[in-house]
Amino acid sequence: MDRETKNSVQLLLADAKTAAVMLSVSRSGLYSMHRSGRLGPLPIHFGKRTLWRTEELASWVREGCPRREIWANLRAKTPSIAQEY
After folding, report:
1. CA dihedral for 76, 77, 83, 85, sign (positive or negative)
2. 6 within domain boundaries
3. pLDDT in tens, 37-53
């Protein structure tokens, strides 16, 4: 895959480093937010890898970055949010 193709591909999943950049926090800050419940979206696990859905992270930010329990309720009650991923 050439550089131009790589730059035009939209990521579906982001590792901790990329998710942290997306949210303008450090990698350790991302994990701290995840552990404390301040990060709404839950990661998925592929073997030893921990990944976040990029569209869910973007939706979470658009909704004002609610805590995990509020985010889960929003996803359950709002079909448009749940359909995004």
Report:
1. negative
2. no
3. 999 999 999 899 999 99
